[in-house]
Design brief:
Rossmann fold; alpha/beta; four-stranded parallel beta sheet; 17 helices
């Protein structure tokens, strides 16, 4: 049954591709904002189905990739504190800092733990009160509610040995900065379904209203993505620009009220540094003063401030994240930088554009 289902899906994909070829022959550059879209497009060979002139470029939607080098170095520096356990999701394990990665630190004897949920880190703090447990809060609106719940739970359990080094990002502010820069001229955007389940489609209205760029919110299966691309191309052909919700089975126009209430309780907006995009006003979140006990940036401020400025890397991951270049245009790609020897986060992450291009081919 599984193979029959997949075959039917591929028939649908091909029929959508046929419709796409009949919409317009005008050139179009569509940005897959999310790294999961990037990986899916490469894995399923979707680019080969498009007419000449229609192309996909990666965007700043890989949370591992956009985390600033300075923030990675700061978190790694906390591992030098005796009695500290660094806790993270597995996708950060191999991301290189300026001098090491979490994986290399663990091999050198630093207490590094990998968890599937931030609440697992809270449980570690409860079981090991002698440890300072620091969780690396990385990600977009999809993962932020789970981090907020972990902080709230730690507060309720009075776990004074738990904290979060919070470098969370918010997607709409980054898209505004990217479009306003004018560096990359995109015809349309594929917007991430999972982020939008939290913030709602109205969070993107400014893209159509101010920048007149067609958008489609989609899931990550090939059928979802092809429907989204078809929507963007239809809007272009009609001279229209809107936020078309192609993922209505999971996404609504309004933000998730429970998640919004939790986020507003724990976090407040702040400026944030993005790899490749620089500092973007109000594009991140920080832990509110009421919960400052659980803010690693406050608790270990002296150590974090003493971390040297990260050196400039030859890796062009930042340019890839802006859609300014394709992965193969980086001189390190496939030569010095491979999935077995990654130099930058775009090659490390399972959502990275360089990893997708290296594994599945294409630009």
């Amino acid at each position: 049954m599984k193979y029959s289902h997949e075959f039917r899906d591929w028939e649908i994909v091909q029929s959508i591709a046929e419709r796409i070829r009949g919409i317009s022959n005008r050139p179009a550059t569509i940005m897959e904002v999310c790294g999961t879209h990037t990986m899916s497009a490469a894995r399923f060979g979707l680019k080969s189905l498009f007419p000449d002139g229609v192309r996909l470029v990666a965007g700043p939607g890989c949370p591992v990739c956009v985390t600033a080098q300075q923030d990675i170095d700061a978190f790694l520096a906390l591992g030098n504190i005796p009695g500290t356990a660094l806790v993270s999701f597995g996708d950060m394990l191999r991301v290189p800092g300026s001098s090491a990665s979490l994986e290399q630190q663990r091999a050198a004897g630093v207490d590094v733990r990998i968890v599937y949920s931030p609440l697992d880190a809270v449980d570690i703090a409860a079981r090991e009160p002698e440890k300072q447990v620091v969780f690396f809060g990385v990600g977009f609106e999809t993962t932020t509610p789970a981090i907020a719940l972990a902080i709230k739970t730690a507060a309720e359990r009075d776990l004074t040995n738990f904290s979060v080094y919070c470098v969370h990002k918010t997607m709409p502010a980054a898209l505004r900065a990217l479009l306003a820069s004018g560096e990359v001229m995109v015809s349309g955007l594929l917007l991430p379904g999972h982020v939008t389940t939290i913030i709602g489609t109205r969070a993107y209205d400014f893209i159509a209203e101010e920048f007149h760029v067609p958008c489609a919110v989609t899931g990550f299966e090939p059928v979802d993505m092809m429907l989204g691309i078809e929507s963007v191309l239809k809007q272009l052909a009609d001279g229209d620009s809107k936020i078309d919700n192609m993922y209505a089975r999971a996404v609504s126009s309004d933000a998730n009220p429970l998640a919004k209430k939790l986020l507003d309780t724990i976090f407040e907006p702040c400026d944030a540094e993005w790899r490749g995009l620089g500092v973007i006003p109000a594009s991140g979140v920080r832990i509110r003063s009421e919960y400052s006990l659980f803010d690693a940036a406050e608790r270990f401020a002296d150590i974090i401030k003493a971390v040297p400025v990260a050196p400039v890397s030859k890796c062009l991951c930042g340019d890839v994240l802006r859609g300014a270049i394709q992965p193969a245009q980086c001189p390190l790609f496939g030569v010095d930088c491979t999935t077995s020897n990654p130099i930058g986060p775009c090659m490390v992450s399972s959502e990275g554009a360089c990893a997708a291009a290296y594994r599945y081919g294409g630009s």
